[in-house]
Design brief:
- A 6-stranded parallel beta sheet has the order 3-2-1-4-5-6.
- The two termini are 33 Å apart.
- Strand 4 (180-184), helix 8 and strand 5 form a beta-alpha-beta unit.
- It has helices at residues 37-51, 57-62, 68-80, 85-102, 110-119, 132-139, 164-173, 187-196, 226-231; strands spanning 24-27, 124-127, 149-151, 180-184, 199-202, 215-217.
- It is of the alpha/beta class.
- The chain contains 9 helices and 6 strands, in the order E-H-H-H-H-H-E-H-E-H-E-H-E-E-H.
- The longest helix has 18 residues, at 85-102.
- It folds into 2 domains: 19-35 and 106-231, HAD superfamily/HAD-like (Rossmann fold, 3-Layer(aba) Sandwich); 37-102, Putative phosphatase, domain 2 (DNA polymerase, domain 1, Orthogonal Bundle), CATH 1.10.150.240.
Length: 232
């Protein structure tokens, strides 16, 4: 018979160690890893001024967490400009990428938690509705292979709040979504992670997040470690 005594402490509990960590951590980007929402909003206002449209902070916040082409449709209708959704997205990306290349606005505690997860061999994925050309200048500021896989909005058929983005990330990491923690800053993203079966660590930023069965809330990622995620 296998002797398991050496693998447990005197109280009979599993020891602190790798097996207690989540199988993977799936990171949202905008508003979670980096606070680029102000960049998007500033670019939207610039487009409204350029093309004679109208815009508001309320409209801007309605787009947080949405797929880009869906945002393009919304902007076309509510801004009232004569561009296709694809043209709107392309111009938005041009403006936001230019701002990111000047300065990457990291969210407090995010890089430190990400580094601790990598140091503890916890696979991480980036799950964002932004497109690859926006992600690239941000990844340039992180060590190579920080993310084991990257799911962007131009890789999936259905964006958040549909579960496809998180299901895709879990499948590419060869882990069950139920064994993953998703980190999100919006209700749209939280819906996506929850629908996929993940436990969602919600860190609200620009928009509120509703309570949910598979949602836990923190005010900040500052001071959080891989062990803290294991405790969730």
């Amino acid at each position: 018979m296998l002797n398991t005594a050496a693998s447990r402490d005197p109280a009979g509990q599993p020891p602190e160690g790798r097996q207690r960590f989540p199988k993977a951590v799936l990171w949202d980007m905008d508003g979670t890893l980096v606070d680029t929402e102000p960049y998007w909003i500033a670019t939207e206002y610039e487009m409204a001024e350029k093309y004679g449209g109208t815009w508001s902070d309320e409209h801007a916040l309605n787009l947080v967490g949405n797929a880009l082409l869906e945002s393009g449709v919304y902007i076309r209708v509510h801004m009232g400009i004569d561009l296709t959704p694809q043209e709107i997205v392309d111009e938005l990306l041009d403006g936001v990428v230019e701002r990111v290349r000047e300065s990457v606005p990291w969210r407090p505690g995010a890089r430190e938690l990400l580094a601790d997860l990598v140091a503890n061999d916890v696979p991480c994925a980036l799950v964002t509705m932004s497109w690859q050309r926006f992600v690239e200048p941000i990844l340039e500021h992180l060590p190579p292979d920080t993310f084991a896989t990257i799911v962007t909005g131009d890789r999936v058929e259905f964006g958040k709040p549909h579960p496809e983005p998180y299901l895709t990330a879990a499948a590419e990491l060869d882990v069950a979504p139920e064994d993953c923690i998703a980190i999100e800053d919006s209700n749209t993203g939280a819906k996506s992670g929850e629908a996929a079966g993940c436990l969602v660590l919600c860190v609200p930023n620009h928009v509120p997040i509703l309570e949910g069965e598979r949602r836990v809330f923190r005010d900040t990622l500052v001071g959080m470690s891989a062990a803290d995620l294991a405790a969730l």
